[in-house]
Each structure stands twice: as C-alpha cells, then as structure tokens.
C-alpha cells in the first residue's frame, strides 16, 4: 500500500482555479481580463465574434463555445457589451449550468440588472458576484485597474485569488448591486465633469490663462475639483453642518460672473447655466446665508433620504 496522502476529492473542487476560469465576452476589456487571468490560471474564452475569437487565440487563450465552457468551468466571468446580453447569457447558464457554481459580472450594468441576473442564475443554483471595473483596458492589462466587488462575502473570499490576479486595487462592498452602483455613479460624475472641464479650458484659452495652470489649480486640495468633494460633501453634507463657509448667495454671484465671462468671450457653456438654476432653487428655500453645500438639501427633500453619515466614535 502506498504511503502517499491523497487529498479528499472535495478539497480540489473548493479552490478557485481547480477548474479552468471561463470568460464570456472577449471584447477589449474581456480579452484584457482573460489575459490577466491566463497568467495565473487556465482560461477558456467564448465569444460570438470570429474576429474576437481569433484575437483571443493569438493572445494564447483557448477559445470554446459556451456549452463546452460551462461543462469545464466552475467559475465564469462575464464581460459583455449590454445588460441584455448579460441576462441572456446568465439565463443560458442557469438552463444548462454544467459545473458552473459562480459567475462574476464585470460588464457595466445597473444594480437592478445585477439583481435580475442574480435571480436568473439562482434558478440553476449559481451564485452571482458583481465586480465593477473602474479603469480602462490599459490599466487592466497593467494590473492597476480599480475593482469594486459586492455580493456574498463567502463567495468573494473564495474568489479572492481571481481578484488578486486582476489587480491590487480592490474595494469590497456589501449587498449585490452596490459595486455596479459605484461604477455607474463614478462614470456619470466623470462624464459630466469632462463637459464642465471642456468649458473651463475654453474659457481659460479665451482669457489668456494657461490651461495647464488651471489644471494645477483645480487639482490642489483647495481647488474647484477636490474641495467640493472632500470638504463640502465629506465634511459638511455628511455632518449636516452648513454654518459659515462660502455662502450660497456668494456662490450664486460667482456663477453669474462665470456666465458673463463666457458670454463676453463667446464661449458656449451648458453645465454652468444648468447648475445655476439649482443654486436659484436653493436660494428660494431660504438658505442664502448657509454654506453653498446646503444645496444638497434639495436632493434630501426630493428623495426623502438624509445624507448625514453616522460618525465612528473617536473620529
């Protein structure tokens, strides 16, 4: 009789990577995800596009159809272009789950989409974890992409080696859908700010101000980008403290000046006038002497939710 100690059959199955990792959707981001994982695990990829399949094979990824992928992979990562595509794939996995036990959703979808897909997978006994990617393809390839993860903590712990293979920049949240909420909101802020910054650069150029100096000013802790986030939201809004500071009335006056500057220089602007109307609504509420962070109280009233955060003792 051999003295070799044989591990129980379940122990290998209880380790991520004991079967290949499946990646469904081999577009720009999906292929980058597959390449990152392929450096540490065996990876199978699947995509309907023959061009995407060829690119994946060139990158060293074994390409199979969805049926073979679910038959060989216990963990499947989705990277698809639309929420409807994710739901369709998830429904197919639930119908013929093979050995799949966990699906990681990296596609950009809404929290409601996550819950719908989670329910569809549950029919087949498959768990869903949302893992929102905040950065671009280049960052994913470099292993520096931001990753926000949410869902059942036990499944997240199990999948930790997979997440570690993707990036060191990880934020773990709680309920399913919150990771995608973080991504959608983050992207919305970035896209609106991009419009505002385009207006700002145009105004700078028109007035002879070096745009690089404007970038330097805006990016300082006291600048127009960071100060509203860290001080007004992080300190004032979350504590409900609106005494002192720059008054709503003063901020409204500055908004008028910004619009006059743009008009004088013939610069079309869109975000500044839209924001100005919000300041006017806040003024009509009687908050003229409060710090202009008080305008967020409009959304507290409209949503019926307080933005104040409980403080940890000792902070």
Mind telling me the C-alpha Rg?
A: 25 Å
Shape descriptor reads: elongated
CATH superfamily of the largest domain: NAD(P)-binding Rossmann-like Domain
Unreliable residue runs: 1-13
Number of domains: 2
Largest sheet: 8 strands, mixed
CATH architecture of the largest domain: 3-Layer(aba) Sandwich
Care to count the β-strands?
Answer: 8
Percentage of residues in helical conformation: 40-55%
The helix count comes to 15
Structural class: alpha/beta
Order of helices and strands: HEHEHEHEHEHEHEHHEHHHHHH
Instruction: Give the CATH class of the largest domain.
Output: Alpha Beta
Describe this structure in words.
The protein is α/β, with parallel strands linked by helices. It has two domains: 9-174, 3-Layer(aba) Sandwich (Rossmann fold), CATH 3.40.50; 182-303, N-(1-d-carboxylethyl)-l-norvaline Dehydrogenase, domain 2, CATH 1.10.1040.10. The chain is built from 15 helices and eight strands. It has helices spanning 9-13, 28-38, 50-58, 66-72, 83-95, 111-122, 137-142, 153-158, 160-166, 178-206, 211-218, 226-237, 248-265, 271-284, 297-303, and strands at residues 21-24, 43-46, 62-63, 75-78, 102-105, 127-133, 147-150, 170-172. It has an eight-stranded mixed sheet, with helices on both faces. Helix 6 links the parallel strand 5 (102-105) and strand 6. Residues 1-13 have low confidence and may be disordered.
Topology:
Layout: H1 9-13, E1 21-24, H2 28-38, E2 43-46, H3 50-58, E3 62-63, H4 66-72, E4 75-78, H5 83-95, E5 102-105, H6 111-122, E6 127-133, H7 137-142, E7 147-150, H8 153-158, H9 160-166, E8 170-172, H10 178-206, H11 211-218, H12 226-237, H13 248-265, H14 271-284, H15 297-303
Parallel strand pairs: 1-2, 1-4, 2-3, 4-5, 5-6, 7-8
Antiparallel strand pairs: 6-7
């Amino acid at each position: 009789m051999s003295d070799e100690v044989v591990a129980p059959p379940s122990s290998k199955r209880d380790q991520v990577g004991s079967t290949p990792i499946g990646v469904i959707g081999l577009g720009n981001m999906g292929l980058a995800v597959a390449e990152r994982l392929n450096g540490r695990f065996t990876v199978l990829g699947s995509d309907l596009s023959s061009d995407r399949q060829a690119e994946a094979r060139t990158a060293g990824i074994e390409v199979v159809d969805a049926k073979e992928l679910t038959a060989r992979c216990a963990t499947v990562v989705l990277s698809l272009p639309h929420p409807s595509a994710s739901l369709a794939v998830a429904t197919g996995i639930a119908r013929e789950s093979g050995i799949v036990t966990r699906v990681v959703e990296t596609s950009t979808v809404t929290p409601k989409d996550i819950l719908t897909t989670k329910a569809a997978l549950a029919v087949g006994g498959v768990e869903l974890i949302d893992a929102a990617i905040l950065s671009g393809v280049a960052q994913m390839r470099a292993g520096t992409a931001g990753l926000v993860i949410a869902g059942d903590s036990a499944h997240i712990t199990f999948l930790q080696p997979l997440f570690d293979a993707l990036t060191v920049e990880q934020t773990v949240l709680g309920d399913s859908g919150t990771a995608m909420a973080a991504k959608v909101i983050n992207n919305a802020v970035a896209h609106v700010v991009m419009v505002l910054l385009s207006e700002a650069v145009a105004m700078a150029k028109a007035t002879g101000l070096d745009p690089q100096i404007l970038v330097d000013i805006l990016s300082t802790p006291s600048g127009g980008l960071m100060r509203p986030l860290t001080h007004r939201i992080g300190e004032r809004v979350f504590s409900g403290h609106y005494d002192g500071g720059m008054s709503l009335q003063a901020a409204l006056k500055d908004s008028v000046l910004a619009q006059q500057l743009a008009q004088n220089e013939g610069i079309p602007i869109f975000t500044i006038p839209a924001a100005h109307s919000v300041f006017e609504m806040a003024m009509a509420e009687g908050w003229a002497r409060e710090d202009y962070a008080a305008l967020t109280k409009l959304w507290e009233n409209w949503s019926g939710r307080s933005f104040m955060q409980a403080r940890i003792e000792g902070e």
